[in-house]
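Annotated sample (chain length 349).
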Amino acid sequence: MVWVWALAAVATAAPAQAATPDLCVDLKAANPELAALASEYERQSNENPQDAKLIWLAASAYRCAAQEQSAPAQRCIQVGQAKALYDKFADTAGSAKALKRELTDAKRTAEALRAGHAEPCATLALQTAKAGQAGAAAQLFESVYILTPRPLLLFNAARACELGGLPNEAAVYYMAYLALPLPWRDRRDAVAKLVQIQRTLASDTGDLLKRAEQTATNAYQWAQQANATAGNAQKQAAAAQQTANGADQRARAAEQRAGQAEQRAGQAEQRAAQADQRAQSTEHRAAQAETRVQAGESRSQTAADRAQSASDRAAQAELAVRQMAQRLAAAEAEIRDLRNQLAAQAPRR
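Output written by the structure step:
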């Protein structure tokens, strides 16, 4: 009966004209994820409460996201978020002339959201509650309450949580319902249920305290065991540290020896480089000497050739001299013969 009364209490006025869709296009251009954009604007508005327009932008982004939402329950929740922010913007902006256009849009759009979504969202909340989906039903009843502030919608949210095994959430909704400055139709029932839930929670809290005390006792015992284990571990750690110190000293000594060996290796490389330079210098001098030897041999061969040529010419000259001597001797012999002949032919006196 409670569900039916709450549903029937939702106003069903004709929808008012919604805000221009051009804003949705601009917002979607800024971020295609409109719900995320709305959440970001809402965060910025909390950080900058003096900038009331951020609230209007967050509300508009939620409203645009709801228009594109295919899931009815999520659409109702986003519509409730938009309506709550539009109301907050109207309260915050007041009569600011700079936000006159946004104020007009916020009031018109808030009314359009209430008229267009309150009844279908209330029907969906009732169906969700009957299906045993307590948390989802409570969220939907709360969204409908934002659209049209009927106190029994909070009572329904509390009842849904109570029947769904969510006592903490039920207590919150019952207290919110009882805190409203309006006459309560089911005040006595709400108070009784809230007291019963609080007693159950207190009993559960007592059990939790007992379990916590037992857990603390166990933890203390485990801590003592851990301390004993830690003491042994500390001794082992000290021994390990001592071993590590010895290993570190040996490692340092090994590093020192390695450094010395590296230094000697460097010196050996330096000496090898010097020897290589000397060898290259020796090879160069040997090449120069060989070049000089080859030049000397060439000059010696040239001198030998000239000496042979001179010897040949001397032999030829000696042969010519001998030939000349022979001809001279022959001439002298002829002269003697001529003289002898002339002498023989001359008349004797």
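Annotation: Residues 2-185 form one domain.
Annotation: The CA atoms of residues 174 and 190 lie 6 Å apart.
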